[in-house]
Every structure is written in structure tokens, then in C-alpha cells.
Specification:
By secondary structure, the protein is α+β, with helices and mostly antiparallel strands. The chain has a 15-stranded mixed beta sheet that branches.
């Protein structure tokens, strides 16, 4: 029993995390000879390899090859095929109020006919374009290949009850242009009843159903009943609903359509980078994506009626084995049961003098101290590693496994340290003084990188206050336990009120921990060894289950947002603490407990330092970007890089003819400083730019050169311009006198783009036309090959052509119309 009490917390932690790791593993890809009605990643990989050979952004020559491949495949499957050309628009956003994107898109629509052609159809959506400089084997060749394999599997089975439409959108990367064109103007949209979208942010990990529409209760029940090895929870859907991130699915939601959005998000070093090759794609991720999407599509396609709108549910997978879903009022019932168990435990503990009210209050403060200390530790680590710096971000991303392990071990060490201090107390005032000094230094250190950090300093002050409230005389296990349970209960109730879907991650661990606390209080005083062993076993089993479930949730969440704020992982450690608390207090009684906790803290810091300073090498390259800028209006040429710091390769490229790179702005192309160095002027084709006034309309027209992937018009007027139109069609492009307004046209029409405004008062306008072309210009001096540790990013190795013009005009009078 003594050994169990000493090692129980470590055994439960390790076993729980091991189970979580197993739950996060992807299934093996099914072979090419798998049954015809099943999804086979091996079969789908043939399309991934064909599509993901090279980058194929909208408007590129390579996307034509990809489009031809898709048309051949869907025709070969015997589907009804249409190419839907159109114009997609990304309106100005809050973070760019005077900037919009437009593109000439060619969506591909392939329909598998159902028995009842008039019934609302199931739309399966993915996009077939990529960003520049990424072959996009995951984003979104995997989604496209999965859709083709789903179409084949459905065709191999019975005829669906309704049409299944496969929409392959164009121009997703520059602004969801293909989806906007389809859902805003394509008449086929009226035939759609439900949408299943497939995406990727990275090229590994389990696929998760991370987004649904409003009132999707019946749809979630259908998904729960049909999904194979699902990964989903209502917290992710609730959070994503409030985030600015968008996918093609966003346009379906804006039209009020229900649906399911799937993606895998691990190994994000391969997200929008050259690393995203077919060979690098985890085929198990593709299998998991296809398994979940196929089962959902098949269930929807075979249903007599599509799920009706119904109140949202609280739901989550259980270690990827199945999905549990229940109404919001059941969530309240779970919290009510947990609350009653906590009240029972507190009543029995107070009545039996196992705890005092003061100890419970100090337990509350101690648990808040644990939370603040854990968050501060990871927040400080993220600041010192410098993940806000994009170059550091990618460097750390290359060491993601070390980052996750280091963050997890540091959290374990920090939580055990705080719980040990709670259990043992601090005999004198000096202990709390030293903790206060350390906390303030840690909070202040958050401002060493990236400027003044109010969050870090606030956390440091909170740790000081809570340390003085909770530490001193030791707190008994029931004081700390009840304090932790009460804090989590208060949090769970708050979340249940504000965002019911988010309560799942609090309610389940809370119910488990409160049940164990009540059981320990009810029978914990027995002298029967068999009962004592059984009780210990129950405590350990519940602790393992809670750690496993929270570990799986936490690792998936950390893969998505951990590099934005590593402290997000602390939330899962905090929620696991109540279930582990009695075992941690047993461990705290051991003489060397502080040393073990300190070793864990040191090990976590070491791994985090390695993640921050390590070099991923050839297999985990860092991004580099260098391009050629030809400014035809000044007759100059430059080599440019937007990176905060130049890597050795970029330094060599920019130092052409011994030029010295300097950081400077170059409006209207670069409004913030970038690295620039003069280079030889080379002959490049000039786009046509004309600025005219016809009546009270200002006309800005640009004709791209052959091979232009993007044509951007930027203009700054001395007056506000009204009634903007693009090629005669009204658009939402706000202008403000004296400020630059930007419109980027992707895959521009060879006949040109016309932007017009009403301009009645006298004024002046400056216009810049910017073209992006693939590759360096002809005649460029030799560009050294990138070393194995670097990969091209953004618009690297492309040619940017800039030209300018201006026009002044008098005020327009009504007599001019006569």
C-alpha cells in the first residue's frame, strides 16, 4: 500500500497519457484491394500523387493540369460533370477594411444521381487549388482525393436516395473565391440540403469534425450513429464559431445550410509549405478522414429525409471509440449531480471534522494558485521561445513533439510542486516571500521578448496574492480537494451558461472526480483491507480515465493553437488535477516529493529550451523567401524578402553584385519594412495601365501580361470615391481619402480588369498595378540552390512587376451630362 501511495500519481499519469496517445493514433490505410464499398487510403493516394506533384495556385499553368486530371477522373466514374466558371469575391474584412480579392474561378461539379432527383442533395466539398510554393498534398489534395474515393465507394453500393454532388472549388486559398461564387450565384446551390466539407491544416494526425452549423442536433445524432472512430467535441465547434478563421464551409453556413466540416491539423510545418508532398502525407490521416466522411455522406445520402433543424447538443468522442451526444438540459443534470456529490462530500467532511471551512477556502485559493502558476509557466515559455516571431514560429514548429512533451512535463512538475506546497505548508514567511519574488520575476520576464506583456505581469501578481492566501500552514486533502472541485464547478456552470457546448470538457472530469470524492468520504475510513484496496483501485481507474480523455483532448487542441499560446495546455492539466489530487497528496507525504517535482520542472524546461533553440535539419526545414521586384515606373529593380531576419541563403540572394540589403518600406507595395537590395534591371513585360474619367466616373483599367497569376490594383485618392464597380458589377470596396485601397484579381481575365468609381468633386488619384509571375525573370544571375534546411515560402522565387500612374480632374457639374 505504501508503494501504491508513493507511485500512484505517476503510474496513473503515465498510463493515462499512454492511453491518450493510443487514442490519437491514426488507423492503418486500407489496401487497394479493400472491399469496394469501403474507403481505401491506398486507392486515394493515387490521386494525391497525381494532384500534389507541384504547387498549383489559382491562375497557374499547373492548375490546368490538375483540372484536367479531375475531369478525367469524375468522367471515368460515370458522374454527371459540369465545369462552372464564375467570379468569386472576398469582401474587405475587419483587419483589412480597404482590401478585397476577386478571382476568375472554375469550379468542377460532379453529381452521383440518386433515386429521388428532386430531394435535397448532399454536397461533398473540397478545393483543388494550393498556395504558391506548396504542392498541397494535404491542403487540399487529400480532401479532393478523399471525395473521389467516396464517390467510387458510393457508386459501388446501392443507389443513394438523393443526389450526391461533389464540388471541387477553385480559388479557396486567396479568399474562398470558388465557394463564394457557388453559394452566392450558382443556381445549383438551391438543390443542396446538407454539406460535408474536407480540409487540412498540416498533413498528419486524426481527422476531426470541428465545425457544424446552428441547430444541428439531429445532424450530430446521425453522425454519432454512423461515424467510424470519430474525433469531435462541441467545445471545438463552439470555439471555432467565434474565431475569425474561415474555410469554404463558411459560405455554406452563411446560406443557412447544415453540415459537417472535417480536417486533420497535426504536423503544421507542412501547412502551406513545400514539405506538403505526397510522400510526407500521413496515409493514416487520409484513411481516418475518409472513414468519417464516407460514413456521414452515406448515412445522409441513404436517409429518407435529411436531419431537420433541432437544438444543438453537447457532444464529444470518447477516446475516438465513439461519440456521446446529449441535450443541454442533460448537461445541467450532470452538473447538478456533481454539485450534489460535492455538497455531500463537504457536509460529511465538515461533520466528521476532516476539514474546516477555512481549509476549504484555502483549498480554493490553492487551486487557483495551481492554475495561475501553470498558465504563467507556459505563457512565459512561449514568450521566451519567441513564437510570436514568424521565423521563430516555424523553427519551433519543426520541434513540435519536443514542445508538446516539454509543455506537458513542465505542467506536471508545476502542479505537483503547488500541491506539495499545499500539503506540507510553508513554515515561515520567507518561503512565501521567495515564491512572490520568483512569481514577479517570471511575470516581468514575459516582457523580455515581444514588448511589454500585461498578461504575464498580471499572472505574476495573481500568483503572489494566491500564494499568500493559500500557503503557510498545510491544508488537508479534503480541504484542497473540495476547493478544487468547487472552482471547477463554478467554471463549468459559467461555461454551461455562456457556451453550453464547451461544458463537456469540464463536466465529465468534474463528475468523475466528485464521485470519487464522495465515495472516499463515504467508505474511506473503513479498516477492511479489501475495501481499502478496492477504493484505491477505483481512485486510480478514474484518474487514469480522466487523464486519458483530457490528454487526448489537450494534445489535439495543442496541435491547433498551442503555438499561438502554449498556455492553452494548462487548462487540461488544471481540469485533470481534481481526479489526481488524492494521489498527489499521498505522493506529497514522501520525503523526496519536492525533488521529484523539481526534476519534472527542470526536464520540461530543458525540452522547451531544445524546442526553442533546436534545428530541425533537412527533414524539418525552415521557410525562406526572396523575390525579384521590377519597378517599371522608376526603372529600378530589387531583390526583396519580407522575413524579419535574413537567413544565409536569402542574404546571398539579396546581395547580388555585392549589394547591401537594408530594411525599408516601399509603398504602395510594401507598407511595412522589408529587406531590399538593388539588382540588375532586366527586361520584363509591362502590364497595361490606363486611368480615365468618363462623365462623373473614374475608370482604372489594367490588362495583365501572359502568365500573370495575380493582378493587383492599388489606388489612393484625394477624395472619397463612391459606387465602386468591377467590370461593371457593383462591389463592396470602401475607399477613404488619402488611404490606399487594394483589389487583387487572381487568375485575371487576359482582356483586362476595369475598376470604376463615382468621383464628382475635383481630385487626384495615384494608381499602382502589381503583377505576380512565377519564376525569376529571364537573364537573372544564378540563384543558389536552397540548402537542405530551408524551403521556399510565400512568393519566394517569383517576379513582382510594379508600374504606376496618376490622374487629376476638375469638379463634375450637372451641365456636363447635357
Amino acid at each position: 500500500m505504501k508503494t501504491v501511495r508513493l507511485l500512484g500519481v505517476w503510474v496513473c499519469l503515465l498510463l493515462g497519457l499512454a492511453i491518450a496517445n493510443l487514442a490519437l493514433r491514426t488507423p492503418p490505410p486500407l489496401p487497394a484491394n479493400a472491399p469496394a464499398d469501403q474507403f481505401s487510403a491506398t486507392r486515394a493516394m493515387a490521386d494525391v500523387r497525381a494532384i500534389g506533384q507541384k504547387p498549383h495556385p489559382i491562375g497557374s499553368a499547373e492548375i490546368v493540369r490538375v483540372r484536367d486530371h479531375l475531369l478525367g477522373r469524375v468522367n471515368g466514374l460515370g458522374l454527371e460533370v459540369l465545369v462552372r466558371p464564375g467570379e468569386g469575391v472576398r469582401d474587405a474584412a475587419k483587419w483589412a477594411p480597404r482590401s478585397m480579392a476577386v478571382g476568375a474561378v472554375q469550379n468542377i461539379v460532379a453529381t452521383l444521381p440518386g433515386t429521388y432527383r428532386d430531394a435535397p442533395a448532399v454536397l461533398v466539398m473540397s478545393h483543388y487549388d494550393t498556395v504558391p510554393n506548396s504542392p498541397g498534398a494535404a491542403d487540399d489534395s487529400a480532401g479532393v482525393a478523399a471525395a473521389l474515393e467516396i464517390a467510387r465507394a458510393l457508386k459501388a453500393g446501392p443507389t443513394p436516395a438523393r443526389d450526391v454532388i461533389f464540388l471541387f472549388t477553385d480559388g479557396e486559398e486567396p479568399g474562398l473565391l470558388g465557394a463564394e461564387a457557388f453559394f452566392a450565384r450558382d443556381p445549383l446551390r438551391d438543390h443542396v440540403g446538407v454539406v460535408v466539407n474536407m480540409e487540412a491544416r498540416g498533413d498528419a494526425g486524426r481527422a476531426a469534425m470541428f465545425q457544424t452549423g446552428a441547430d444541428s442536433g439531429e445532424l450530430i445524432r446521425l453522425y454519432a450513429a454512423s461515424a467510424r472512430q470519430p474525433t469531435a467535441n462541441s467545445l471545438a465547434a463552439a470555439v471555432y464559431r467565434r474565431m475569425p478563421n474561415d474555410t469554404d464551409f463558411s459560405h455554406a453556413l452563411r446560406k443557412g445550410l447544415p453540415g459537417l466540416n472535417f480536417a486533420f491539423i497535426d504536423d503544421q510545418l507542412a501547412y502551406h509549405t513545400p514539405l506538403a508532398t505526397p510522400e510526407h502525407l500521413n496515409q493514416g490521416s487520409l484513411q481516418n478522414l475518409g472513414d468519417q466522411a464516407l460514413s456521414a455522406v452515406r448515412a445522409l445520402a441513404m436517409a429518407a429525409t435529411l436531419p431537420a433543424k433541432s437544438p444543438d447538443l453537447i457532444y464529444s468522442d470518447v477516446l475516438a471509440r465513439g461519440l456521446v451526444a446529449y441535450p443541454v438540459n442533460v448537461g445541467w443534470a450532470i452538473l447538478a449531480v456533481a454539485g450534489l456529490l460535492i455538497v455531500f462530500t463537504g457536509y460529511r467532511a465538515l461533520r466528521g471534522k476532516a476539514v474546516t471551512a477555512v481549509e476549504i477556502l484555502r483549498g480554493i485559493a490553492g487551486f487557483l494558485l495551481l492554475a495561475a502558476g501553470a498558465v504563467l509557466a507556459l505563457h512565459l515559455a512561449g514568450r521566451l521561445i519567441g513564437i510570436a516571431d514568424m521565423q521563430r514560429y516555424y523553427a519551433v514548429l519543426g520541434q513540435f513533439n519536443a514542445l508538446l512533451a516539454g509543455a506537458g512535463i513542465l505542467l506536471i512538475g508545476m502542479c505537483l510542486t503547488v500541491l506539495t506546497l499545499q500539503a506540507r505548508g510553508l513554515a515561515g514567511i520567507w518561503g512565501r516571500i521567495w515564491i512572490s519574488v520568483a512569481a514577479l520575476l517570471a511575470g516581468g520576464a514575459c516582457s523580455l521578448v515581444g514588448g511589454f506583456d500585461q498578461v504575464g505581469l498580471g499572472l505574476g501578481v495573481a500568483v503572489v496574492v494566491l500564494a499568500w492566501l493559500s500557503l503557510g500552514k498545510g491544508v488537508g486533502v479534503f480541504g484542497a480537494w473540495l476547493g478544487a472541485l468547487l472552482v471547477v464547478l463554478a467554471l463549468a456552470v459559467t461555461v454551461q451558461v455562456l457556451a453550453p457546448g464547451g461544458s463537456v470538457m469540464l463536466a465529465w472530469p468534474l463528475l468523475a472526480a466528485s464521485l470519487v470524492a464522495a465515495l472516499v468520504m463515504a467508505v474511506g475510513g473503513t479498516r477492511d483491507r479489501r475495501v481499502a484496496w478496492a477504493l484505491t483501485l477505483v481512485v486510480c481507474v478514474v484518474a487514469v480515465a480522466v487523464v486519458a480523455q483530457l490528454g487526448a483532448w489537450g494534445a489535439w487542441t495543442f496541435a491547433g493553437v498551442g503555438l499561438t499560446e502554449p498556455a492553452v495546455l494548462a487548462a487540461f492539466a488544471i481540469l485533470a488535477a481534481p481526479a489526481l489530487l488524492p494521489l498527489a497528496f499521498d505522493f506529497a507525504a514522501y520525503r523526496w516529493a519536492p525533488a521529484f517535482a523539481g526534476v519534472a520542472v527542470a526536464a520540461g524546461i530543458g525540452l522547451l529550451a531544445y524546442a526553442g533553440l533546436g534545428d530541425g535539419g533537412p527533414t524539418r526545414p525552415r521557410p525562406a523567401e526572396a523575390s525579384h521586384l521590377a519597378d517599371l515606373s522608376t526603372g529600378t529593380a530589387w531583390r526583396v524578402s519580407p522575413a524579419p531576419r535574413l537567413d544565409p541563403w536569402s542574404t546571398v540572394v539579396l546581395s547580388d553584385n555585392d549589394a547591401k540589403p537594408v530594411r525599408q518600406a516601399y509603398p504602395p507595395l510594401f507598407r511595412e519594412p522589408v529587406w531590399m537590395a538593388p539588382t540588375a534591371v532586366l527586361p520584363v513585360e509591362r502590364p497595361v495601365l490606363s486611368i480615365d474619367r468618363a462623365g462623373d466616373r473614374l475608370l482604372v483599367r489594367a490588362v495583365p501580361t501572359a502568365g500573370a497569376e495575380v493582378l493587383t490594383l492599388r489606388l489612393r485618392s484625394s477624395i472619397d470615391l463612391d459606387e465602386p464597380r468591377l467590370n461593371g458589377r457593383p462591389i463592396a470596396l470602401p475607399t477613404q481619402a488619402g488611404e490606399w485601397t487594394s483589389l487583387s484579381y487572381h487568375a485575371p481575365d487576359p482582356n483586362g480588369v476595369t475598376l470604376s468609381f463615382t468621383a464628382r468633386p475635383a481630385g487626384k488619384v495615384e494608381v499602382a498595378v502589381i503583377e505576380i509571375r512565377d519564376g525569376w525573370p529571364r537573364g537573372v544571375s544564378t540563384i543558389p540552390a536552397k540548402p537542405a534546411g530551408l524551403m521556399a515560402s510565400g512568393y519566394s522565387d517569383k517576379t513582382i512587376v510594379l508600374d504606376r500612374g496618376a490622374l487629376s480632374w476638375p469638379a463634375f457639374t450637372d451641365s456636363e451630362t447635357q
